Amino acid sequence: LPPAPMTIAVIIPVLNEACGIGQTLSHTATLGFDELIIVDGGSSDQTCAIVESCAGRLQNRPCSGPAPAAPAIRLLKAAAGRARQLNAGAAGSRCEVLLFLHADTYLPTNARQAISTALSDEACVGGRFDVRFDSPRPIARLVGHMMNLRSRWSGIATGDQALFVRRDVFERTGRFAEIPLMEDIEFSRRLKRAGRLAPLRSQVVTAFRRWERNGPVRTILLMWTLRFLYWIGVSPYRLQHFYSIVR
What we know:
Blueprint (H helix, E strand, L loop, with lengths): L7 E7 L6 H8 L6 E6 L6 H13 L12 E6 L4 H10 L5 E4 L4 E2 L4 H9 L4 E10 L4 H17 L9 E3 H6 L10 H12 L1 E11 L2 H6 L1 H16 L4 H8 L4
Parallel strand pairs: 1-2, 1-4, 2-3, 6-8
Antiparallel strand pairs: 4-7, 5-8, 6-7
Helix pairs in contact: 1-2, 9-10
């Protein structure tokens, strides 16, 4: 008999994401994943109400034709902080593979198959997707292209690229460090030492709003500066004030 397909959970941390979380859930729920876990960090808007409404609507829809059944959708609560929320979502999941997704990011339609194919190689411990921004501006295309090149060259993934990992590896490598920023880079660096990471060519589509709000060039320079300072050893706690400018 062929092996049973591995189970995959999508974990989405949220904090005041009422403007877009409904669309993200509606899209992600059609992709054939086993669990969809949303972890709220104390939203003061309608985020939780929207998540609960979407969960009820999606899980009660009739299943017809070849479309996959809706995943188990759950809303969890955790203290604010992306790393804490991601760790809480992982702890609440029963799946063999964990996929960490930003609330303003859409997975490609072949995401599940791409992950399963990558992880069919036992030496592969996880991976990430290429990224594309939702803006038609040339600067947005350039930023996405440079992010993908940098990640492919360095082997380091960022949260924008929808990082995925085997659950046992996630636990063995110590989960996300609960630091105020750079938790994705810090975890990705540890993950690299655990085994091979798959840099998938399939693209996630993510919002360009952060770059638009603060000016693309200014934001790029600030992000590069923060990452350089982190690489040379400056504490994330010292960097968090500057990062708040671009979040």
